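Kindly go through the following sequence and its C-alpha cells. Advise at your convenience whether the C-alpha cells fit the sequence:

___
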Amino acid sequence: MITLALFGQWVQFPSERAFYRYASDHLREAFPRLPDRSQFNRLQRTHRDAITAFALFLVQLLHAQETAYEVLDSTAAVTRDAKRRGLGWLAGQADIGWSNRVGWYEGFHLLLCVTAQGVITGFGFGSASTHDQHLAATLFATRQTPAPQLRSCGLPAQGSYVADKGEA
C-alpha cells in the first residue's frame, strides 16, 4: 500500500503498479516524458543514491529537523503473497514476517522517521522478520555515526523521538 499526498488530499494506492497507472493517466502534463513502468523501475534502482541524496537535501532545505519531535514507526512492505511456492525474485533479501495490518507476508520491514508536518527525515528497512527494535537501534546508531552505505537513515533529530512500544 502506497499513501501519498496529492493535490492536498491523501490518496492510497494498493501497489506501485497502481501508482504508476495513476501517474500515467492523470499526471501526464506534469511528467510528459514518463517512461514505461519497467524502464521507470530500472531507472529508480539505478539512481537510488541520487534519489536518496535529493530527499535528504529537501529535508535540509525545508529545515524539517527543526521540530520538537520526530515520529518513529514501521510498516510492512509486501513484495509477494507469503503462501506462494518458490523463492521469488528477492530470494535471500525478502523473507516472511508478521504485520498486524496485513497478517503474514513476504517482503520487507520499513522503518520511517517523520516530522509532525509529514516530512520523512530518514528511513531504513530489513527483511520482514526483522524486529522493530533492531531496525530502530541500527537507525539511531547510523544517525550518530553516519555510514556511506546507509545514508537513507538521515541526520539525528534535534528534538525528541516519539515511538510506540514496538520500537522502544
The chain has two domains: 1-46, 64-163. The longest strand covers residues 103-115. Residues 48-61 form the longest helix (14 residues). The two ends are 25 Å apart (CA to CA).
